[in-house]
Amino acid sequence: MLDHDTAETVRNLVRLGRWDDERIARYCGIDAAAVARARQLVPKGRKPSRAIYEN
Questions:
Q1: Tens digit of each residue's pLDDT (9 = 90 or more) over 6-52
Q2: Is the pTM higher than 0.90?
Q3: What is the rounded CA–CA span in Å between residue 35 and residue 23?
Q4: Exposure of 30 by Cβ count < 10 A (0-12 exposed, 13-18 middle, 19+ buried)?
Q5: How far apart are the C-alpha atoms of 46 and 32, rounded to whole Å?
């Protein structure tokens, strides 16, 4: 489970779409699998559900 600030950072970086999962993971100090799960929960152009904070 990601803390609120980390989840917001991941959400914003995923929505920008400029960094790959590995780079986001290194920047946020989490594993790439967590970023991949978050990427599935953040459709571009829409606000994600609270599910991103639960994974």
A1: 888 988 888 888 888 999 999 999 999 988 888 887 766 555 555 55
A2: no
A3: 10
A4: middle
A5: 22
CA atoms within 13 A on the CB side of 38: 30
User: What is residue 3's predicted lDDT score, i.e. its pLDDT?
Assistant: 83
- Domain range enclosing 26: 4-54
Residue 51: both structure tokens together = 């599910």
Longest dimension (CA), the chain: 25
Rounded CA-CA distance 9/26 in Å is 12
What beta strand segments (E) does 1-55 contain? none
Number of structural domains (the chain) is: 1
Please tell me the number of Cα atoms within 13 Å of 15 on its side-chain side.
14
